[in-house]
Amino acid sequence: MSRKQKRMLRNIIIALSLFLIVLILDLVLKNAYKDTFPYGIASFIPNENYGWLLPFGLYFLIYIFIGHNVLRKSVINIAHGQVFDENFLMAIATLGAFSLGIYTGITEHSPEGFDEACAVLLFYQVGEWFQSYAAGKSRKSITELMDIRPDYANLVNGDLVEKVDPFIVSLGSIIQVKPGEKIPLDGVIVLGESSLDTKALTGESLPQDVSIGDNVISGTVNLTSTICIKTTKEFSESTVSKILDLVENASSKKSKSEAFISKFAKYYTPIVVFLALALAIIPPLIYTFMGNNNMWTTWVYRALSFLVVSCPCALVISVPMSFFAGLGGASKNGILIKGSIHLERFNQANVFVFDKTGTLTKGNFKVVEVNPIEKKDEILKLAKIAEYDSIHPIAKSILEECKEEIPLGYTLENVSGKGIIAKKDLDIILCGNHKLMDEYHITYPTVEAIGTIVYVARNMEYVGYIVISDEIKPEAYKMVKYLNSIGARTIMLTGDNEKIATHVSKCLGLKEFRANLLPQDKVEEVDKILASKKDNELLCFVGDGINDAPVLMKSDIGISMGGVGSDAAIEASDIVLMHDDLSSIEVAKKISKKTMKIVFENIVFALFVKIVILALSALGITNMWVAVFGDVGVAILCILNAMRARVKEYSKEWELYSQM
Question: Which residues partner with 467 through β-bridges?
């Protein structure tokens, strides 16, 4: 608990203890010693005309002690033109009850309402504390990610090392990071080697070994040795800054449900105030015209009870609290959702489109076949020349497979969606798919293999081919099975050929796939799916965040896998899966479903109870104690129900996947 929450809880305990002492003493005197103390505590003062002053003073002191901030907020809000809020309702209802108690004390010598007025504000503060505590627990789940924020950077300036604010470190500066310190900015290691704790960003528990030339991202913790890093981004553009911005604004984008409740409360509160005023004036006026002048106290009391129960706290607090708890529960499972609107929409998502490489598959390509085998070294060497400067996973697998030294000085030309052409003097090397071979009219064999076929030709003569295959992520099977079980439409987009796409699709149980797509074709395919889907369908695109930014932004909901290292992913996606694990999609879906169920439960329960008690209060069947339950009791129950959205029941499921 925060200091403020502890102080508030202490004040509540003190006020509640004093309140119970006064209340119990008054009840005991009235019932056990009614002959001596017919008016309870008021009978301590011999003059019955002034007896009401003692209970009034005791209860009012407790009232001011516990509720002074409510009265202050009410006055401040009125001064700013915000009249109709819960503070105003509480102030009017409780001060009205005290006024009623003073009136009955003077006229009947038996004050009624002091205890109830005090109880209303006391239990209202109990509800406020529950709200604060619940919000704090949910906020903690989200702000635990704030631990990645670096406090300083060790800027190297010649022989001196100066501790400075990360904001002032410019691009290309050299910073020093000692063991135990957070890396403050993205960069590349220029001196030293070490191990990094990346758990806060990736969920990976094993340290990552890094050395000179390796890229490092801010927010990770240096573990073993001092390293020097050349910054490649300023702090405002670094990974840690992007994630912190996402976290800090997670609760700012309101869902439709929250927006509706806010609008509902705006009109609801003034309506019930005027209804309570009408309840206090119209019925007793009718009785007065009928000759009965003794009904004013009764109907004012009913109106005050009506005001108490009509306070929209349960709705105004519990609905945003449910979403906040859901966002907190998601963060606890390594799922960053940019706002409650995306949490609400993700519950409705029923069309899931996946990029294949790096999302459904590991992206760890390996050379599994080289043909003809007698030319293996030559084929790999030629392919290495062509792919030498490429960062594509397929190129990396070729570079890893070929250990031979290669001649340099080739001019490399990337032909989008086809391959690479390497030229040096009269030597021309073609390395790519069948489209590249067709373009240059090179005869090549039809290969029946599961994987990516890379054809190699030299000086317009076919040399051979390389088969490179990718491995399906183990958690992808269960994730697709889950989506199919809830009736979702599952689609895979890939640049691979029809055979590979068919193989992966059948293995996973995907309902549809699109193959042979160029990078720009993926955007067009998503446009087609968006155009063909039904009005009640929402499209969710899941990509690895490397070059999927345009598609992530076009889709109804964009999810980036392991996008913490990609600025584009953080900017474009609505949900970021920190753990780079497909099982998080099922977790997020269950959290969103549970959150929306809780929101619905809270709205129905709060409205039902309030309408019933409002009607009973207006008819005089219930007293203000029941009204207190209708307000504070319902609010507390709704808050406790909302907190179920952050229960960590999905963490074991993720741990199971991570061990596979």
Answer: 369, 453
- Residue 629 predicted with pLDDT over 80: no
CATH classification code of 366-469: 3.40.1110.10
Residue type, 12: I
CA distance 102 to 109: 9
Assigned superfamily of 340-362+472-573: HAD superfamily/HAD-like (3.40.50.1000)
Q: What is the mean pLDDT of the chain?
A: 81
- pLDDT digit string (tens) for 110-131? 667 788 778 878 877 877 777 6
Please check the confidence at residue 651 and state whether its pLDDT lies above 50. Answer: no
Retrieve residue 572's tokens. 């474009």
Annotated catalytic residues are 355
Q: Which helix (H) or strand (E) holds 409?
A: none
- pLDDT tens digits, 193-252: 888 887 666 555 557 788 899 888 888 888 888 999 999 988 877 776 766 665 555 445
Token pair, residue 556, equals 């109804």
Query: What is the token pair recorded at 337?
Result: 């959702």
- Residue 335 gets the label, from left (phi > 0), alpha (psi -120 to 50) or beta, of beta
Phi, psi at residue 582, to the nearest 5°?
-65, -25
Mean pLDDT of all residues in 43-70: 85
Could you tell me if 394 and 364 are in contact, meaning their C-beta atoms sit under 8 angstroms apart? no
User: How far apart are alpha carbons 188 and 123 in whole angstroms?
Assistant: 57
143 burial (CB, 10 Å; 0-12 / 13-18 / 19+) is: middle
Identity of residue 340: S
Task: Indicate the domain borders of the chain.
Answer: 3-143+252-324+596-646, 340-362+472-573, 366-469
More confident residue, 659 or 523: 523
CB atoms within 10 A of CB 463: 20
Instruction: For residue 253, give the DSSP letter.
Output: S
